[in-house]
Amino acid sequence: MLLKLLVFLVPAAFASDPTQRQLKPVKGVPHSRLHLYQPSTTDTFRCIDGSQTILYSQLNDDYCDCQDGSDEPGTSACGNAFFYCSNVGHKGNFIPTNRVNDKLCDCCDGSDEYDSGVTCPNICDELGRAARVEREKVANVARKGFQKRQEMAKEGQTLRDSKLKDVEPLRQERATLEPERSRLEQDKKSAEEAEKKLQDEHRNQWEVIRNEKKKLRAAEWFEQLDLDKSGKIDREELRQNLFLDDDNDGFVNEDEVKAYLTIDEADLEHFQSSMYDRLKSAKNRHLEEARIKEEDERERARALENAPDDDDLLAEEDRHEGEAAEPINSEDEDDKMPEYPQEVKDAQEKAREARRLFDEVNEKTGDLDAKIREAEDFANSDYGEDYSWAALKDKCFDRNVQQYTYQFCPFGQNTQKDTGAYSGTSLGSFKNWSGPEGNKYSKMHFGDGQQCWNGPKRSTDITIECGEENELVEVTEPAKCEYLFTFRTPLACSDPDKEVVHDEF
Predict the structure, then answer these.
(1) What is the 3-state secondary structure (H, E, C) of 299-329?
(2) Which of 144, 159, 160, 149 is nearest to 388 (CA)?
(3) What's the first-to-final CA gap in the chain, in angstroms?
(4) What is the pLDDT of residue 70?
(5) 184: nearest Cα among 363, 439, 415
(6) How does the average pLDDT of the chain come out, rounded?
(7) Is residue 390 over pLDDT 50?
(8) Do strands 413-418 and 425-433 pair parallel, antiparallel, or not at all (unpaired)?
(9) Where is the composition biased (Basic and acidic residues) (predicted)?
């Protein structure tokens, strides 16, 4: 009895499995979905969205019963349904059902015009052959590119390992140099303090002497300006000095005097503190202007004379050169600080040597710090799952478009410049990989480029495609200051022999 029951149940079990029984074909439905369109035990069909159940005989009856259009995959009754073209010999595809029996051949096998009266030639074999040739061509490019990618991945991994291997020795060397650097820094500080102290002492001594001389010169000039010897200078006395004639009208007016004497009378103390330097500058300026004017007049006079002998002309020029070489005011010599004594020079030399020794060690430690940072940054950067992109670090690729040269530098900065120019406009620096989930390394984003006039900062998005060589193949600007680059590289190639092509979706 048990044996008979098993014989009865096993065929029933197989019959309930759509992969184990013969599926009834339904027009417009791919084989992968046929199990959804098989009649139930009650000879009904449940809409794919589960919204309702209809009679199985209502499938493809040219009337839309299901809201999702799933009951009419082979007719044009539902506007939201799709018809499947089997396209044997080529690639199956879906078309909207409103194209079914519209007297236009959409499927390469002509199956969409089964009831329109139009005879469509079956060109699937021809299209399939062309598609296979193209696929093989693309596969060959991908195959060669993938081989180069593997080589570049080894190069990137070797570079990473080398940099990481060098980090610890660099840190040890840095630690060894630090005590010496600290000692030399302290030596430099002490030597510079001693140098500054001696320089300040010398300068202060000179300034005391200079100020005393200045007071004496000011007192002498005060005596000359104090015409009535009253111990004070008034505006009338100051008006007698034509070097204050700023407008060159031949006399000194009230306003020109007030510019230097703001009170009614000036005693010696006020003259020394508030008037002497300004009057001295005014006098020197007046003398310089007079000298230039005199030279101009001599030049004009020579031009009006008959051409003199060469010897006379040279003698005249030498005489005037001698006059011009004389200082306007010998008092300026007192404003120059005398040369440092030997004690200060020795301190200066000692400080220079201390700075040199410190700078040498400090430069070495700075170089070591930079190398350590570079290695750590390299190790923490995202150069792809196999590190192949590391092979393109610090490399750039150009493309000329009309009068511009565009430059793409992975992990660096993109630029636009006039062809032949040395510098250009920044189109942004590398920010991140921006490809979609599952294909992260298919896009790059560059941002924070040079600000546009009345616009945003420039930015660039890079689309990365498989190619045998590294090449910037396209540059566009779809929006103001937003650029799109297309870059082909072996680094975007995967193994075509491991890819699976699906004809149905």
Answers:
(1) HHHHHHCCCCCHHHHHHHHHHHHHHHHCCCC
(2) 149
(3) 47
(4) 94
(5) 363
(6) 86
(7) yes
(8) antiparallel
(9) 290-303, 342-351
Q: Where are the domains of the chain?
A: 21-122, 164-232+267-391, 394-498
pTM: 0.54
For 130-155, what is the mean pLDDT?
89
Q: At what angle do helices 124-225 and 342-380 cross, to 10 degrees?
A: 160
Check residue 6 and give its pLDDT.
31
Instruction: Please tell me the predicted confidence (pLDDT) of residue 325.
Output: 34
Q: What is the DSSP string of 143-209?
A: HHHHHHHHHHHHHHHHHHHHHHHHHHHHHHHHHHHHHHHHHHHHHHHHHHHHHHHHHHHHHHHHHHH
The residues near 440 (Cβ < 8 Å, ≥ 6 apart) are 433
Question: How many residues are present in the chain?
Answer: 505
Whether 493 shows a pLDDT value over 70: the answer reads yes
Cβ neighbours of residue 489 under 8 Å, at least 6 residues apart?
145, 392, 464, 465, 466, 467, 469, 470, 471
Mean pLDDT (whole number) for 420-425: 81
pLDDT, tens digit (0-9, with 9 covering 90-100), for 20-39: 557 889 999 999 999 999 98
Structural class in CATH, domain 394-498: mainly beta
Q: In the 3-class helix/strand/coil scheme, how is 144-161 assigned residue by residue? A: HHHHHHHHHHHHHHHHHH
What angle (nearest 5°) sits at the alpha carbon of residue 392, between those of residues 390 and 395? 140
Q: If you compute the radius of gyration of the chain from its CA atoms, what whole number of angstroms results? A: 48
Inter-residue contact 468 to 440 (CB < 8 Å): no
Q: Which residues, at least 6 apart from 400, have a Cβ–Cβ distance to it below 8 Å?
A: 406, 419
What's the rounded Cα separation, in Å, for the pair 132 and 146?
20
* Bridge partners for 460 per DSSP: 446, 483
Rounded Cα–Cα distance for residues 216 and 466 (Å): 88
